[in-house]
Each structure stands twice: as structure tokens, then as C-alpha cells.
Design brief:
With about 350 residues, this protein is α/β, with parallel strands linked by helices. About 45% of the residues lie in helices and about 15% in strands. The chain has 2 domains: about 5-180 and about 330-345, 3-Layer(aba) Sandwich (Rossmann fold), CATH 3.40.50; about 185-330, Glycogen Phosphorylase B (Rossmann fold), CATH 3.40.50.2000. The protein has 13 helices and 13 strands. The chain is globular. Keywords: Transferase.
């Protein structure tokens, strides 16, 4: 019998690196002949910005388990029957599906508590894209008397810092899956505009403060600062290809796609590694700043802009090297080769 792999997935339809990785994984497995599908929590769900169209279904089981466990609060629990009624009334393109006894359910790290409750008889694997979210979810589950280490057969981690978390929790069935941010979509551009860009997603208040301070201090030598947010991927690529500098506002990341995308496009990246980004964001590929040191980031960017105005050779060499590192480490071919190598092992279990 062919084994089926169902990947439980959040429902946001906006740009999300984590959801894109789940879709990439399922699409690659389907191309390789595995029976794999996305399992959303609503009939109207789906990642609209993703080019592949892997099989997609939905189930309400996860949502119902969250409400029963009280994970979304008392008000959400009281409103859940009305929410489900509204979902059924509106409908959507996805067909319902309930995992069978022979299916393997692959769950994101932050969904483990409710997933263990919602699917008590299912075989489980865990897809860890953020070790910090995994740490919090594991603690939450343990408070409910649920230990994912006793339920899951294996764990996938997308970066070195994920593997560190496996070691910390004494998980011996962990695999390293180096995911791709598709650097080919962010081609290196030599000639740049006097443009500094940033993505404010995880540090919106700090981003506003940084931009305000930089503009008031007036030391950016004629550069303009622009925000990249809620844009199609093609527009993000265009902005990064035109940007001379990119302010990295990564926070508690497993890898941190925004800084990697900026490096691929040839930006000089200044800012935070988000901790997990240290595997590619180093003094050899950018200008890393101590986490949460806002003033340090402002000073570092001003100093880097000043250096580039008078002696650009060192910084041009850094950005070329950074693009090479990202393209070599996080390309699609490397991701798919690692995925299929891991899956041959998992499928034989």
C-alpha cells in the first residue's frame, strides 16, 4: 500500500516563507511520486502567492481541538460554533479529508499541542522551521500532559539552530532539511540605486524608530529609505535588485529569508542575524549587529554608507561573496536532493 503524507498547514493567504516551504516540500514529493498533500483548516484556505498547485484538503479537527484545549481563550471558544457555521456556509474550493490510520501527519512545530489532541491515533512527524516556536509549543504541550517526543516518529529541522534544539530536547530522530528561499528569483545586480530597503514584519515599532532616527540624523549621503511589505514576490525581487543597502530586522529566526534574499540580489546587508541566520550572515557576508541593539544598528548603517561613498571595494567584495554563499547553500536543487534523500529513509520505516 502506498503511504500518504498529509502536511498540516496554517491558513494565511498572504506571503509567508514558512508556508511556502511546506508547499515546496509537498510539491517536490508529488513530483517524485510520493502521495503527499496539504491539509488546511478551512475550505477557503490556500497560499495564493505560491506557483505550485499541490493537492490540498481541509479538516476542522485541529481548530476544534484548539478550542477544547482553551488555547485561543474563552471568547474564541464560545464563538467557535458560529465560526464553524460561517465556514460551512461560505464553503470554498477545498474538499474535506480526515486522516486515516495509515496516513502520516506532518505537523508544524507551533501546532503540536492541538495536533496531538486532534489526531490521537495518527502517526506523526514534526516539521520544525522555527526552534523558538518549537520550544514554546513543547512547553505548552507538556503543561497539558502531552510530550511530542513520545508521539512523533521523526523530526525535520531546516537549519543548524533547529538541530541544536533537537539536541537540547534529546531528540535522536531528527533530520536536517536545508530549505530553499529560491535565490534564483533574486538575481545579483551589480549597478544599484541610492536606495536602502527593509522589511518591518517582526520589528515594526523598531523599524519606525530606526527610519525616523536615520532621517533626522541626515547622514545617509542622499540615500532614500523605503519599506518592503505586503508585496508580490516579483516586486520584492525588483526592490532588492535596485537596493544598495538592506536593513536586516530578523528576530528569533531559524534562517531568515529576507536577509538571504537581499544578499542574493547583491545588497549590502546591515543588521540582525535573528540568531538562526548566523549560519550564512557573518562578517564575511554582511555587517551583523548585536541582536536588539537599535543604536548599534543605526551607527553600523551610517558607517557602512560612509565607507561605501569613499572606498567601496571591500563592501562590493562582501556583497558578491554573500550572493555566492546564499546561491550555493539555499538553492532549489540542494533542497530537493536533501528532501528526497531523507524521504527514502522515512518512507522505509
Amino acid at each position: 500500500m502506498v503511504r500518504r503524507y498529509l502536511f498540516l498547514c496554517p491558513d494565511t493567504q498572504t506571503a509567508s516563507g514558512g508556508i511556502a516551504v511546506i508547499y515546496d516540500t509537498v510539491a517536490a514529493l508529488c513530483r517524485a511520486g510520493y502521495d503527499a498533500a496539504i491539509l488546511h483548516n478551512s475550505p477557503a484556505a490556500g497560499y495564493l502567492d505560491h506557483p505550485d498547485k499541490p493537492p490540498r484538503y481541509y479538516t476542522y479537527d485541529y481548530y476544534i481541538a484548539r478550542q477544547r484545549l482553551g488555547l485561543d481563550g474563552k471568547r474564541a471558544r464560545l464563538m467557535s460554533p458560529f465560526m464553524l457555521l460561517g465556514q460551512r456556509f461560505r464553503g470554498g474550493p477545498l474538499e474535506p479529508l480526515r486522516p486515516g490510520a495509515d496516513d502520516i501527519l506532518v505537523i508544524p512545530e507551533f501546532m503540536i499541542t492541538a495536533a496531538m489532541t486532534a489526531f490521537p491515533g495518527s502517526r506523526l512527524g514534526v516539521f520544525v522551521q522555527n526552534p523558538f516556536a518549537f520550544q514554546e509549543a513543547h512547553a505548552e504541550a507538556m503543561e497539558k500532559g502531552l510530550d511530542i517526543r513520545e508521539r512523533a516518529e521523526w523530526f525535520l529541522g531546516v537549519s543548524k539552530i533547529c538541530l541544536d534544539q533537537f539536541d537540547l530536547l534529546n531528540i535522536e530522530t531528527g533530520y536536517h532539511l536545508p530549505v530553499s528561499m529560491k535565490p534564483e528569483d533574486f538575481p545579483f545586480r551589480e549597478k544599484k540605486e541610492r536606495l536602502i530597503t527593509y522589511m518591518p514584519r517582526k520589528r515594526s515599532a523598531e523599524a519606525r524608530q530606526i527610519v525616523d532616527v536615520l532621517e533626522r540624523r541626515g547622514r545617509l549621503k542622499g540615500y532614500r529609505i523605503e519599506e518592503i511589505d505586503n508585496m508580490p514576490r516579483l516586486d520584492v525581487s525588483d526592490y532588492l535588485q535596485r537596493s544598495q543597502f538592506f536593513i536586516s530586522l530578523l528576530r528569533m529566526e531559524s534562517i531568515g529569508f529576507p536577509a538571504a534574499e537581499a544578499m542574493a540580489a547583491g545588497c549590502i546587508v546591515v543588521g540582525y542575524t535573528g540568531l538562526g541566520g548566523r549560519e550564512y550572515f557573518t562578517p564575511e557576508t554582511g555587517i551583523p549587529v548585536t541582536e536588539d541593539d537599535t543604536l548599534g544598528l543605526v551607527h553600523a548603517l551610517e558607517a557602512t554608507v560612509a565607507e561605501y561613498a569613499t572606498a567601496p571595494a571591500r563592501l562590493d567584495a562582501i556583497r558578491r561573496h554573500a550572493s555566492e554563499v546564499v546561491n550555493a547553500s539555499y538553492n532549489s536543487a540542494t533542497f530537493e536532493a536533501a528532501l528526497l534523500r531523507i524521504w527514502r529513509d522515512l518512507d522505509a520505516r
